Amino acid sequence: MVKKTLSYTDALRVLGKDDSALLDFAERLADGTLGMLGVPDLFGLREQVLRHGREAITGMREKITGVSRWDRTERIEAANQILRITAFFEALGEVLDQPGSPLKPADLEFTRDEQYALLTDAVNGYGLAPAPLPPAAHGDGSALAVWSPEASVLPFVRGLAVWEGLSDTARGRVEDSLAPLPALAQRRYAESYRKLAADVPEFGVWANLAEHDETRKHVDEMRVGLAGMEELLRGTLAAPGTRRRLTELERYYQAVLDKPMLPSVEAPEGAVLPPVRHAYLNLGGRLRFTGPNAQPSADDWWEKAHRYDDLQPLLVSLLTQRDCHLRPIVLLGHPGAGKSQLTRMLAARLPSGDFLPLRVKLRSVQADAPIRVQVEEGVSATLNTRVSWRELCDSAPGALPVVILDGFDELLQATGVNRSDYLEQVQQFQERQADMGSPVAVIVTSRTVVAERARFPARTPVIRLAPFDEDRIRRLLGVWNRANTAQLTARGLRPLPLETALRYRELAEQPLLLLMLLVFDTDANALQQGGAAFGRGELYERLLTAFAEREVRKHHSHLDADGLSRAVEDELRRLEVVAMAMFVRHRQSVTSDELGGDLSALFPETAVHVADPGLGGRIAPADQVLGRFFFVHEAGAVQRDGRRSVYEFLHATFGEYLVARTLVNELSDLVADREHAARRRSPAPLDTSRFYALSSFAAIAGRAAVVEFAADLLERRVGGDRAAYRALLVELFQAAPYPRTGQSVLDYQPYRATVVQRLAAHTANLVTLLVLVADEVDLAELYPGSARPWQDWRDVSGVWRAMPGDQWHGFLDTVRVRHLGFWENIGARTVLCREPEDPVNVGECVGFELRSDVAEALDVTNPYDITVPYDGITSRLLRSMATRAHGSVSRAVLMLGPYLKHVGTDLGSWLLDDPDPASADPAAVDLDASIPPHGSLRTGKVAWTEVNDVLELRLAPVGSAGSLFSDRRRNLRYMRLLFGNDRLGRLELTVLRQAAEDFGYFARFLSSSGGEDYSPPAEISLGLLRETVSGYLRRVTSVVSGPLLSSRHVRPVLDALRPHLQASEDLDRVCGLAAANDLLDDSDVTRELPSGQWRSTGGPSQGENGGPSRSSGSA
C-alpha cells in the first residue's frame, strides 16, 4: 500500500538514508527516547529538529535526480513534511521569545516521560492538518492549516511541571500567547516552500508559482524531468525474478504499519484514524505446552499457565529456539482479540535478513490442500503472480522461513472439513523441511473455542492472547484522543474518559471492540451521554442503532426522518434474523446458506436485492445482510466447488441482545394485536405463528445474558403496567400443549426437532418471560379450577428435562418454583418467581410430596426448617425436584431430612481423590471386586461422596473385632472425612461421635474376649484410626458458628474420645473453641453455616486445591 502521509521521522528516514546521524535522531524521536540524546527541554528539541531538518533538505536537487518515480515522489513529500515541522518549531520559538511571554523555552524542561510521548506524537504529525497535494494556490500559504495549538501544543504544555505551578490567570496568558502560532507557522512554511521550489520543480507547480519568472525555467525543467522520470522508471525495472518478489512481499507486509487502525469506511466523518504504527499495542498472553490430556479450549487448563505482559520477548524466544523448527506455535484468542493483527505485525517486523515471513490467510486458500500448497496459494495471491515454495526458500539463503497460517478456525467453521490432524500435518511439513536441511517455523492462529477440534502434537507451545488490561485501555484511549482532540474540540465534543470506557469493560477488553466504542463515542459523544446510569442493554441498542444509521445514511442519503427511522429498524431486524439463526441452532455462528434459508422463511421482505448483479453474479442474501456490519465477523474458506462463509458476532453479547430484542419485540407486537382485536366486534384469532417459530427451538434461559437483556428491555418498554403482557403469556401457556389451529404456517425448521422438543422450548420461554413481567405467579392462575395445580404443572415441566443441558440448567437458574404451606396443609399453593439466588428452603422444594398420600399430622423432620446454600449440587437437585414436582425423588429427600438438618447439606457431590496406597500392596486385604483397586484408568483417582461414607460408618453392621478393625475401607472413610480439615462442623462432629463408638466397641470386645481374637491387622487399623482422629484434632483451629456446635453438644463427644487418645490438650482446646457458640439459641439452627460452604475436605492425598476435587452430577 502506498503511504498516504509521512510523519517527520518518516521524512528523516526517507531523506537521510545515507546519514547515520539523521537516522539515529529519527529512531530516537520515533521511540520516544529523546532523553538519551541529551535533550533537556523544548528549546533543545527545537534546535535538534531545525538542525536535522535543514540537513535533510540540503541538496534536494541531487536527492531527487536519477531515482525512480516513486522514490522521487516520496522524497519530495518528505521534504514538504520537514518544511512544515521546521516551520512550526521556528514559529514556536519566536512566540516564546517575544517580550512579555509568560513562558520561555528554558521553562519547558522535560521532567516526565509522558512529555516525551506527547511531543513525540506532535512531531510525528498529530494535530497537524493534512497538507493537500497540491496545496492551496495562495502564494503566502494562508490557506494551509499547519498546526492547531489546541490539538498538540497545549496538551504538551499542560503536561509540563511548570504548568502545575501557574495560576489560572497565568495559564490563560499562556494559551493566549500561543494563539498567533498557526498564522506565524504558515508564513514561515510559505517562505521555506518558495526557497525550495527552485530545487524542486514540483513545488512550483503545486503552489501555482509558474507565472513567476524566477521559477519559470524550473517549471520547464520539471516538465522534462517528468518525462525523464517515466523513462527512468522503465529503465529501473528489475528483470523478473524471485528476489523482486521478496522485495515486494516485504514492502507489502510493512505497509500495514502506515495503514489506519480501522478501515476509514468504519469511522464517522471527521474522525482521525491513527496509523497502526502508533496505535498498535503489544498484547499480553499466557503460554503452555501441550501434553497427553491438553485442553487448550478450556479455561481451567490455563490456570497454571505463565502470564506474559508483553508477548514480544516470548515470541522472539520461541522463534530462536530449535523446537520451533519441529512443531508449530499456536496462537489462540477470541474474536476481536487481535490474532490477525498480531500476525500482520509479525510479518512487518520480523527482520528480513534473518527471517522470511510468509503470511497465509487460510480463508483464501483451498481448505483441504497440503500445507505447502496452501502456502504457495496464499503468497501467490498476495503477490498477484504464481510463485513456488522452493523458489521462495532458495531466494533467501540463510533466512528462516516463518509461515504464518492465519485463521485455522475459519477453515474448519466455513467448510466443515474434518482437519483435526491439521497441526500434525504442519509438524510433518516442518520435520520434512528439517530433514532436508531447510527448517521452517510455523505459526497457526485460531479461535480458542475451536481448539478442541484439533489434535496438538506433544510439547506444542500454545499462546492464548490476553484481553486488554486497564493500562492498555488507557493507552489506546490516549492514542485515539490525541489524534482526535482537535476535531472533537471543533465540534464541541470531549475525548472519551477512561472511567467511561471501563464501565463497559466486557467490550473494552477486546481491541477491536474497544475501537468500536471509540468510533461510537467520536460521533456526538454518544457513549458519554448516558452517564453513570447508562445500562448495558441501552448501550447495545445505541451501538447497533448508530452503526445501522451510518450504513443507511451512506447508501440512502435522501431519506427523511421517518424514512430513516424505518430503514434503521429494517437494518436491525436483519441483524435480529442473524442472531436468531445462531441462537435456535444452539451455536455462536451460522453459515451463509443457513442464514439465507432463515431469511426466506421468516422475513423475506428483509432481503436486500441487487437489481444488476453484474459480472460477479447475484449476491447471496446472507452476504447482503452481513457484509456491511462492523461487529459481524465472517469466517470464510475456499473449496473446489466455491467459497463457504460462516458468520459470528465479534462478541457473543451482540447476538444475545438481539435475541432478546427479537422476542420482546414480537411479544410486544402480539400484545398490541391482542388489544386491537379486543376492540373489534368480531375479533379474529391471534396469529402467534411467528412468535412460536422463533421461541420453539431454543430456550432463552440457556443464555443468562439473553434473560438479563430481556428483563431490561421489558422494564424500559413496559415499566410498571405489565398486566397485558402477563395476561397474554398466561393465555399462550395454557394453549401451548394443544394442537395449533387457526394459525398461519411458516416453513421454518432450522433443524429437525420433535414436537416434544419444540413444546419444551416454547413453554420454557413463556414461563421465563412470565417471571420477568410478574413478581410472582400462582400456578392456580395457569391452571384455574384445578385442585392440585402442581400435578397439572408436572405434565408440562416434565418435558423440560429433555432440553439440552445448558438450557435446562439455565432455566433452573432463572425460575424458582416454591411449594408453600404444605406442612400445615392450610392454604397450600405453588408459586413461580424469578430466581433470587438466595439460600434454598428444602420444604419449598419437596413439600408438595408431604401431602401426596397422607392428610394426617406429620411426625417427621420438618423440611421447612432446613435451608441449604444456593451454590452447590444439593441446591440444584432440590430446585430441579421443585420445578418438575418429582414425587419419588422428593420423598427420598424427605427421608434424608435428619441428615440434612444435623450432619450436612451436600447430598450429591462426587469427590475425587487418590486411591488408598495400601490398595497397591498385593498383600493388602482383598477388596470387593466391584471397586477398582487402583482407581480410574482415565484419571488414576477414585470417586466418593460424604453422605455415603457417613452412612456407611453409622449404619454398616458391626461384626467381630477382626472384621471391624481390619476393614480398610472403614479406616479410609474416616481419613477422607477428617483428613486435611482444620475446622469442626456438624459433619466432623458426627464422624468423631462414630469414632468414639468404635473405640468403645473395641474396648468392650477386648474386655469380654480376653484378647483371644486380637490380630495384627486389627491392631494396625486401630492405630490408624487413633492417628487419624488425633491428627485431625491437632489441626482444628476453629469451630463453625452454630448452636448445634456449642460446648454443650461438643463436650460429650470429646469426653467419649478422651480415654482412647493421648490428646488431652487438643481435646480441651477444641472444647474451648466450641464455647464461643454457647450463647446461641438452640432453635436458631439456621445460624450455623452448612458444611458445604466452608469445608476443604481432604483424603489420604489432597487434590490441587487443598482437597479432593468435586464433580457435580446432573440435576
The mean pLDDT is 78
Oligomer state of the chains in this structure: single chain
Strand content: 5-15%
Structural class: alpha/beta
Distance between the termini: 58 Å
What's the gyration radius in Å?
A: 38 Å
Globally, the shape reads: globular
Q: Which strand order do you get reading across the main beta sheet?
A: 2-1-7-3-6-5-4
Total strands: the figure is 20
Number of domains: 5
Query: The biggest beta sheet, please?
Result: 7 strands, mixed
List the total number of helices: 47
Q: Helical amount among residues, as a percent range?
A: 40-55%
Q: Stretches where pLDDT falls below 50 for ≥5 residues? A: 125-147, 208-242, 609-619, 917-939, 1084-1114
Describe the structure.
The chain has 1115 residues and is α/β, with parallel strands linked by helices. The chain folds into 5 domains: 8-237, no CATH class; 281-466, Rossmann fold, CATH 3.40.50; 473-608 and 619-653, no CATH class; 775-902, no CATH class; 909-1112, no CATH class. 50% of the residues lie in helices and 8% in strands. It has 47 helices and 20 strands. It has a 7-stranded mixed β-sheet with strand order 2-1-7-3-6-5-4, sandwiched between helices. Strands 8-10-9 form a 3-stranded antiparallel β-sheet. The protein is globular, with a radius of gyration of 38 Å. Residues 325-469 form the AAA+ ATPase domain. Residues 1082-1115 are annotated as: Disordered.
